[in-house]
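Sharing a chain and its predicted structure for anyone who wants a worked example. Both blocks are below, sequence first, tokens second.
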Amino acid sequence: MGNFKEFLKRKANIWVFISLGLCIILAVSLFFILAQRKEMNDIKTQIAIEEEKRNLEAEYANLAFEYDRFEGSKMLINNDSLINQLENEKLKVQRLQEELKTTKNIDAKRINELKKELATLRSVMRAYVIQIDSLNALNQKLTAENREVSNKYREATETATQLQKDKEELTQKVSLASKLDAIGISINTLNSKGKNTNRISKIEYIEVNFSIAKNVTAQPGERYVYLRIIKPDNDVLIKNRNDLFVYEDSEINYSAKKLVEYDSEETPVTLYWTVEEYLYPGVYRMELFADNEKIGEKSITLQK
């Protein structure tokens, strides 16, 4: 009986040791299982972080590309303050891009922070897009208005130019219409008794008769009529070198002049030249002037 109890006691101790061993094995196994599970979870977490990092790098790259597009549109933006703000935001994007590229072991916390930064930068980008679109629309409107104003100014200038041209043409027509005209010009060569003579050596006076034609557009009133007697050698017969009048913006000599009262009706005029110089045979041209215009001419041939 005592041996049997001894046997049972030993057997119970064996089971206790076995149970204890099994508990230890179970505890160790559980530890390794938990450790392995934690490692797997850490690996999964790291893989997820790396995936998030790659996605963030791609999204930051896209955002940087958008800012580069604005960089190429500076001339269109034409706003220094806005351009400086875009430059600052672009530098911020580049800095965060560089951080994503160079940081090897980035944690979930920083990933979340970078996500929030990305969301903020996108929001700022949207605000800039709206602002730039508004500025471009305004610029287009102003450009269109400026083009319209320029067209109107050009049209007004062209109209003014045409009016000036028309005015000048009208003035020229009026000037031509009001120009005096010498009609019925006749030339007589007279001797000392006032008789006509054909002998050049007997000529004492040259008489030029004509009428200023009727012209209702001409201004009535007193004006000088000038006579130029041009010899065959193209020299002008004059009494004094200071006998000058204005013609075509120049001062030229005259042979004789007369103050005439013109009332827009046909007015007869006679001018004389007293011969005090030697006359030689040839063609003598008589030119008549008034109001700074040549109003007529006629020639005569003197023979021995």
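Comments welcome. The beta strands are 182-190, 205-212, 221-230, 244-247, 250-253, 256-262, 267-274, 282-290, 293-302.
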